[in-house]
Every structure is written in structure tokens, then in C-alpha cells.
Request: fold
Amino acid sequence: MATFRDAWLRHLGLMMAEGVALKPGVIEILDLLDRFDIRRAIATSSRHDSVTRHLGPYDLLKRFDTIVARGDYTEPKPAPMPYLTAAGRLSRDPGR
Reply:
């Protein structure tokens, strides 16, 4: 398993060397959320440095009120903890 993981991480590093393509519609949906003054968060199982590396070149980090990443919560996805943590940081009731 360790050999596979190391090989996968090397492969992933090569794939990510040129950056991550921005999905179509991302800017438009963020603009819409801005117009309606809807707060938003990123809840990810990635590390903060990975989020910064992938979204930083598109200047998207400032478009989110908070980023919840690995290390910010005790139970990873698929547990709800990342989402509950994000809701708490946004002062939002997760039931809504």
C-alpha cells in the first residue's frame, strides 16, 4: 500500500505541476453569491497549503469567508464535521 501511495503522490504531483483548471461557471456563481450577499465557505479534506496552491492563482481565496481544511476538524469526511465546522465559522445554523 505504501508503494502505491508513493507512486500515486508522485503522479499527482506531475499532474498538478501545471496547476488545476478552473471549472466553468465558478466565477459566475461566486458573483451571484456576492450579489445576494450570501456568505460561503470551503470545506475540504485537503490541507490549507493545497487549497492555497490550487485556488490562489485564480485569486479566489478572498471570495470565501472561511476555509475549513484538514487539521481544522476532528473527524474527516464523510463525517459531517468539516461542514459543521464551516457552518459554525459562518455563524450559521447547519440545519438551515
